[in-house]
Amino acid sequence: MDLPPLAIFGASGFIGRHLAEYFSHHAEEVWGSYCHGAPPKRGQSFHYDLLASDPEEFFDRRKNIQVAVLCAGITNVERCKNNLALSTAVNGAGLKRLVQELAKRRIRPVFLSSDCVFDGKKAEYREIDRPGPTTVYGRQKVEVEEFIKERSEKYLIVRLSKIFGTELSDGSLFTSWLEKAAKKEKIFSARDQFIQPTWAGDLARSIHGLLKNDLGGVYHLASAEFSSRLALAQKFFAHLDLDPSLIVDCSIHDFNLAETRAEKIRLCSDKFHEETGCRFRSTDECFEEILEKTRRRQELFR
Hints:
It is built from ten helices and 13 strands. By secondary structure, the chain is α/β, with parallel strands linked by helices.
């Protein structure tokens, strides 16, 4: 084990589950929180509610924790806008209360932020670029980023694009498309919204690399692949030999969203790659893994 004891707040969510699984093999001890979801299967679980739980009480009972990964909160952009009071209490006050306790105890925070801190007006964004969020969710991320910078001596803030998994039925982007295709459901894919699909395993390895090398500050962690959702759907369906007629070419503006979304936010991860030497898997590699798992499952049920 090459990492000290750590806690993952939000370990019952999609990203948190992957981090708990990964760090259970690399940290001396892993604690994973859950709130409304099921407890994480890896590490030692604990209930933590950003609205009601007392962070001082939690850390008083676990004084050996040295790192806290913060991926808890409301991550649905629409929900943050439509339920502003709740999202402000959770993503704002709740996280700040936790960060304040971490700073008091000199526990290193690793905050998972988002490309939503930018407005998409530049061709590419580096860590030194000034944020300009267009959504409530993005503004909440910026607020916590600044709070961490002001109070923590040593911290990591990692900004992400679209994180996906390769486990069947994990509910992430491509595997959910696979499930819909099996049911002959339409896949509405925006031609004008661009993302950087990044494998969850690469995210876990990247955070590990940053911690292991004792690096701090702000880092962009996103695949170099930059594609529209429509192009990604077409590529995925072709790779898995799915029915392309299920793909519906549409615009992001067809979804009647509560807030205007930036169409193109491209994160530059050169700083991370240069300092760690890590590289990300391509979507082609990940598609092949999903295809192989699909074949094995089909053979199992023959």
